[in-house]
């Protein structure tokens, strides 16, 4: 933020900063209230990833969220993968190589995706929220692979998620058949007994 050594500009700047801070706080409050009302969500998704070099890739599948801590992103095409939470851990299963990777959920604390189901002050203080006509941009204050996340709503339902990555890639998720419910079956994942386990929870 630019600083001025002229008293008039300094006073004006402080007044504007106060208004901006209040507006950002209001945006965060509004988004938290909107997400708090969403106890669960299930939807089909199609996604497009645009890399910084202009290259593109597409995928589709299903996602489900349920408070307080259930999340699953099941990609079905072009290659099947499953990313999901269970307890305090994050799991990533790749059927093609038959490998299950496990991470501590704290390792993903810089991901604004967590805000969709976690409404604790301890997490939200790490993000800045900017609102624009009922849509919101969430920006991480701590860095991480995900720089920001845009949430676009259709009424009270999320219709689009746009993730801007540190490497310049932009991942857009377009939701359809959105429901404000999610069953236990939506979070059920069958892992083969012979799957290779890559447990990263003890890694530094």
How are the secondary structure elements laid out?
Blueprint: H1 7-36, E1 40-50, E2 56-66, E3 70-77, E4 81-86, E5 89-94, E6 99-104, H2 121-124, E7 127-132, E8 135-140, E9 146-154, E10 157-165, E11 170-179, E12 196-199
Parallel strand pairs: 6-12
Antiparallel strand pairs: 1-2, 1-11, 2-3, 3-4, 4-5, 5-6, 7-8, 8-9, 9-10, 10-11
Features:
204 residues; alpha+beta; outer membrane lipoprotein receptor (LolB), chain A; 12-stranded mixed beta sheet; 2 helices; disordered N terminus
Could you describe the 3D structure shown?
- This protein is globular.
- It has 2 helices and 12 strands.
- It starts with 6 loop residues before the first helix and ends in a 5-residue tail after the last strand.
- The longest helix has 30 residues, at 7-36.
- 17% of the residues lie in helices and 45% in strands.
- Strands 7-8-9-10-11-1-2-3-4-5-6-12 form a 12-stranded mixed β-sheet.
- It has one domain: Lipoprotein localisation LolA/LolB/LppX (outer membrane lipoprotein receptor (LolB), chain A).
- Strand 8 (135-140) and strand 9 (146-154) form a beta hairpin.
- It is of the alpha+beta class and 204 residues long.
Q: Rg to the nearest angstrom?
A: 19 Å
* Straight-line N-to-C gap: 35 Å
CATH level 1 class label: Mainly Beta
CATH superfamily: Lipoprotein localisation LolA/LolB/LppX
Shape type: globular
The percent range for helix content is 10-25%
Our estimate of the beta-strand percent is over 45%
